[in-house]
Design goal:
Distance between the termini: 149 Å
Mean pLDDT: 77
Largest sheet: 5 strands, mixed
Low-confidence stretches: 1-9, 127-132, 217-237, 324-334
Strand content: 5-15%
Radius of gyration: 53 Å
Strand order of the largest sheet: 5-2-1-6-11
Number of strands: 18
């Protein structure tokens, strides 16, 4: 079949080839345009990043320049977060605008390319129809199909770009939301920091006020510590004083009690603080004091009308540490050679005049001596009235090779202390270098011609006149060297008091030698009856049964009006 010619003399193949060339050229232009768009987008992003970094650097430098040295750490963090948030917002906005502009330009170019392809296809179809409708139609259809497919692919690519743009917009929106959230968190953090700062300021103000109140209170109490304050004009009770104790049950004779505490012994310090906290031991006397190498806080004392408690501190006793005594080396004690410490302590107390005024007896108790002031009052009451109170007196509490004074609990009347205040030089002139403090004060009282009273039930001491904590006739027990041991003994003794009271109400007793075993409780031989608190056998039924095969635990029956086995 002969080749058909177009009206201009060209063959159909030449027309198709020319059309294909134009399409290829159009494709190349389109690819170049797409590459330019991508490059432009990349350059835009890079430029935005550079601009963002430069902007961020400039802002940071400006902020660093204007930031003051007094800005808190929390405020700096909040400012930094706010800067980053603002930069992120600006960057997102710029990127979004540029991306939209590039997409719009790409769409416009794509639409123009599609229009050109359609126009070219239309012209090609018209020319081909002149020579050969069938051949031209077939070829044009094929080209149109190919062109349409390529246009579709280009459209799909544009759609993909549009989707990516939409995704970028969504990411920008998400970034903006995150930035907003970060900004809100930063604001919240700043508010919390401000609130914390205000609370700290308030706390500091309260602390300052409390410190001023305490200082005023301490100043007042220091002024009156050596005097009996009496009553005010309206007849109100005495004002709180750090030396005021918490007496229980019995309030006469009036006692001033004191201890010397070793500041370097944590068990001793804890024991003294426990006594103040629980209002037991020396702190349950009318007045009390603790002396130590440094002024140390011991706890709260009595309260003012506004509810503020005075603070109890130890009195400073500036004395050096001392060694243990050595009997083989010529010392007269194997305990601490602590005489100088106690001479200083006596001088401090005497010069303060705290033992004068409304005080009848002065008691020195060791920190590890479990002490019951209400029981001591029963021991000293017979010597606390009439003219005898003018006579200097003290107690010897140990019967070992003759009457001796053991230092766990030392008891003196006020007259003895007044005389000691006048003639301390008589005592410090004694050769006390190898003595313990108890031997010093014993020989000092002898030097002052004080009357020595004997009471061997004052103390249950493991070294002399031993007794366990259940013995309620003892005013003190020694030695219990920790808060736990001290409180355990105190509780045991208090529980024993309740038991003894119950036994006394029931008239219980132990008969260790009955005259008639058929009726032991009513035929007990003289001297064989032991009541509670009078001996080991009378302490309980179990202990009574352990005092011999014929022992019987008895009580008085009110209905039968006679003694019966309990």
């Amino acid at each position: 079949m002969e080749e058909m010619k177009a009206s201009n003399g060209s063959t159909v193949k030449d027309v198709v080839k020319s059309a294909k060339a134009k399409v290829d050229a159009l494709k190349a232009k389109l690819a170049k345009a797409v590459a330019q768009v991508k490059k432009l987008a990349s350059n835009t992003t890079t430029t935005a990043k550079v601009e963002s970094k430069e902007t961020t650097t400039t802002v940071v430098k400006q902020k660093r320049t204007t930031t003051t040295q007094k800005a808190t750490i929390t405020s700096q963090k909040a400012t930094t977060v706010e800067r980053k948030t603002t930069t992120a917002e600006e960057k997102a906005t710029t990127t979004e605008k540029k991306a939209k502009a590039k997409v719009d330009a790409l769409k416009a170019k794509l639409a123009k390319a599609v229009a050109q392809v359609k126009k070219l296809a239309s012209n090609t179809t018209t020319t081909a129809k002149v020579e050969s409708k069938e051949t031209t139609t077939t070829v044009v259809k094929q080209k149109r199909t190919t062109t349409t497919q390529k246009a579709t692919i280009t459209s799909q690519k544009a759609t993909t770009v549009e989707r990516k743009t939409t995704t970028a917009e969504e990411k920008a929106t998400t970034t903006e939301k995150k930035a907003t959230t970060t900004k809100e968190k930063a604001t919240t953090t700043e508010k919390k920091a401000t609130t914390a700062k205000e609370k700290a300021t308030t706390t500091e103000q309260k602390a300052t006020t409390a410190e001023q109140t305490t200082a005023t209170s301490e100043k007042k109490s220091d002024t009156t510590i050596a005097k009996d304050e009496g009553k005010d004009k309206k007849g109100d009770a005495k004002k709180p004083d750090p030396s005021f104790g918490w007496p229980a049950e019995v309030y006469w004779p009036r006692l001033f009690c004191w201890s010397v505490m070793n500041k370097d012994n944590p068990q001793e310090v804890s024991t003294m603080k426990m006594q103040v906290k629980l209002h037991i031991g020396i702190s349950s006397c009318e007045r009390f004091a603790v002396l130590s190498g440094v002024r140390m806080y011991l706890g709260e004392g009595h309260k003012w009308k506004n509810g503020t408690a005075v603070k109890v501190y130890s009195w400073r006793n500036p004395a050096k540490a001392v060694p243990m005594g050595n009997l083989q080396a010529g010392d007269e004690t194997n305990s601490f050679k602590n005489t100088e410490i106690f001479i200083n302590a006596w001088n401090i107390l005497l010069s303060s005049k705290i033992m004068e005024g409304d005080i009848d007896w002065i008691i020195k108790a060791d920190p590890d001596a479990v002490f019951f002031p209400e029981r001591l009052r029963k021991h000293v009451k017979p010597f606390s009235w009439g003219k005898q109170t003018k006579t200097p007196m003290y107690f010897k509490n140990c019967n070992y090779k003759g009457p001796k004074l053991y230092g766990a609990l030392e008891v003196f009347n006020q007259a003895a202390m007044l005389k000691l205040n006048k003639h301390m030089a008589w005592c410090t002139g004694l050769p006390w270098g190898g003595w313990g403090e108890d031997e010093f004060i014993d020989k000092c009282m002898i030097r002052l011609s004080a009357k020595a009273l004997q009471d061997y039930k004052l103390v249950g001491d493991h070294r002399c006149m031993s007794a366990e904590c259940e013995a309620t006739d003892r005013a003190s027990f020694h030695d219990y060297k920790s808060p736990e041991l001290y409180q355990n003994c105190w509780n045991r003794s208090k529980n024993s008091e309740k038991y003894i009271k119950k036994m006394a109400q029931g008239h219980f007793f132990c008969c260790t030698s009955p005259g008639n075993h058929a009726d032991p409780c009513n035929t007990c031989n003289p001297g064989a009856s032991t009541k509670p608190n009078q001996g080991w056998c009378g302490s309980s039924k179990r202990q009574c049964k352990g005092c011999g095969g014929g022992s019987e635990w008895c009580k008085f029956d009110k209905k039968k009006k006679k003694n019966v086995a309990a």
